[in-house]
Amino acid sequence: MIKRAWTYGLATLALCNVACDSGRTAGSSMETENSIAVLTQLADGTPAARMDVIVRPESYLSGATELGSDSLYQLHFETDEQGRVVLSDVPTGSYVIEARNDSLNLKGFVKIAYVESDSTTPLTVEVSEPTKVSGRVGLPQLVRRAATVSVMGLDYQVPMDSTGYFEFDALPSGNVEIVAFVNDTGADSVTEYGRIEADVGVGFGDGLYLGDSAYVKKYFVFDDFEKGAGNWEPAASYNASVDFDIVSAGHNRKGKAAHFVCERDSVKDWEWALIGRELGGYVDMSSLDSIKFWARTSKASQISFAFDVFVNSDSVTSSENKKAWKHFEVDTAWTQFVVIPAELDTSNNGGNVGWDSIKDSVTKISIFGQMGTEVWIDDVEVFGYGIFDPYAPIAKKKD
Q: Can you list the domains of the chain with their CATH numbers?
């Protein structure tokens, strides 16, 4: 975690629009001393007329407490019919110059280190359709505040949701630096929780992860089910049954997902069905921050995520076996859920003994479904812990 105060200084810019003859280009009649001549165009070189041109310091961070009114830190202009505008009397500094027209769904930007002694600096900004960009922020377990996610030098900011997920609907193409931070209460500063560079453009997908370097090293995808069932196995009580397979995720979600069907063979209340995966021995998970996973069901129902300790591996009903779990209400839409140790159920029910009793000797992770439902599970991710895959010999037997 990095603590820093963000400070900004932008001298008043005497910037003006200059009308240009239709046949001229940047750097000819557009030249004005100590100025930036901007030409906006499409990828094929066609002029982009009537584009908003916005100048901001490269250090601008939208949403930071001490910025105050955004209007003091960004200046707006418009290009002519030939896509041109002159920014005059620009003081020395590093800037991001963005061109955009939201009604035409066109955006672009360039970064510039400007020196006043330059006679005239010609600059071309290429605009194109923007791209959706999403990812996750990894906050430490004790920090459950909502973070703001912003793009350095551009006026784009979105909130992080309760699972750490964030999404920008439309970022301009190019190399951007994305920062996750929390405004400090009563202080003229913010606490940064991660930043990452991303090349936004055609084909860019999801999957950015923002967290400080120490935290990122303690994150891994436990299973995304793209290579099949692996070591996941189904289990059910004597009066229930479970069918388990790997299927297409469906419902607007790409790739594969685990799928299991829970059926009852009687009307007893204690029937259960699950899929689970052994961890390869007793694993000390005391440092676990959280586990996130996606789930959906065939109808509104409940699922349970459990950490198990199997002392007697020959019997899943043995009184020696213990667990700690959390219940979630799930419906037919894919939703991401987060399992936080401090929020696990503490009631002594169904073998549950609470996190503190099992955290240093977990042997299995299980996901229970409700009778009479189908359950889909995808992308199980672990935060705050090094990999404990059964094929990596780090799991240790309990003394």
A: 12-126 (2.60.40.1120), 131-217 (2.60.40.1120), 222-383 (2.60.120.430)
